[in-house]
Amino acid sequence: DQQVKQNSPSLSVQEGRISILNCDYTNSMFDYFLWYKKYPAEGPTFLISISSIKDKNEDGRFTVFLNKSAKHLSLHIVPSQPGDSAVYFCAASEENRDDKIIFGKGTRLHILP
Amino acid sequence: SQTIHQWPATLVQPVGSPLSLECTVEGTSNPNLYWYRQAAGRGLQLLFYSVGIGQISSEVPQNLSASRPQDRQFILSSKKLLLSDSGFYLCAWRAYNEQFFGPGTRLTVL
């Protein structure tokens, strides 16, 4: 049973335009959400997170939106740059629990020149 | 600052051979430690996690095992590798609500 779903395996966006990566979750106990970026042959690196008490968190070119009623979150990257080409993982957890963070399968983002 | 080490970086092993991947963390004490595998089309699959020495939780039944002999050491093992064990293995530790990953080990089973 997949608790965190990224239904788009890949996405291609023109350089300079907005990239929107989507994520859905099923566990209503999740209250903390994260996005990670991964290049080939490297470990994922943390990008941005959001707690369920917020509906938006912004950090530079990256903004995460959370819609709790729809159990949906999205990552917006604007403007998209060539270095943004990577696999993006959505993850969720129950805040302050010390066991596991659940990851989605990832979306491969291609930034086109 | 905290650092996470994994070795080896790459490994090619024949089917049926044993496996030992090591992960160590510096700069923190009593971390929660995790082993993930990234296989083609499978995303990040949680294999094991540990909240303390000798405490291992298994997420996926398979021919792999994990051990935590020391506070900052996490080992992934197998007695006999299968072809399906090929993948990119990542160790991670958790601080509060964020998780930090090591550089990974690329395992190819032939």
Q: How would you explain this protein's 3D organization?
A:
The complex is a heterodimer of chains A (113) and B (110). With 113 residues, chain A is an all-beta fold. Chain A has strands at 4-5, 10-14, 19-25, 32-38, 45-51, 56-59, 62-67, 72-77, 86-93, 102-103, 107-112. In chain A, the strands form 2 sheets. In chain A, strands 2, 4, 5, 9, 10 and 11 form a 6-stranded mixed sheet that branches. A 5-stranded antiparallel sheet of chain A has the order 1-3-8-7-6, with no helix packed on it. In chain A, a hairpin with a 2-residue loop joins strand 6 (56-59) and strand 7 (62-67). Chain A is globular, with a radius of gyration of 13 Å. The relative contact order of chain A is 0.34. The mean pLDDT of chain A is 92. Chain B is built from no helices and 11 strands. The model of chain B has no long low-confidence stretch (mean pLDDT 90). Chain A binds chain B through residues 6, 9, 32, 34, 36, 38, 41-46, 49, 89, 91, 93, 95-96, 98-106, and chain B through 32, 34, 36, 38, 41-44, 46, 49, 51, 57, 59, 88, 90, 92, 94, 96-104, 106.
What CATH calls the topology of chain A is: Immunoglobulin-like
CATH class of chain B: Mainly Beta
Q: With helices defined by DSSP (H or I, 4 residues minimum), what is the helix count of chain B?
A: 0
Query: pLDDT under 50 segments of chain B (min length 5)?
Result: none
Helix content of chain A: under 10%
Q: Specify Rg of chain A, calculated over alpha carbons.
A: 13 Å
Can you identify the CATH superfamily of chain A?
Immunoglobulins
Helix content of chain B: under 10%
How many separate structural domains of chain A? Answer: 1
User: What is the string of helix and strand elements of chain B?
Assistant: EEEEEEEEEEE
* Oligomeric description of these chains: heterodimer
Shape of chain B: globular
CATH architecture of chain A: Sandwich
Q: Quick one: CATH class of chain A?
A: Mainly Beta
Number of domains of chain B: 1
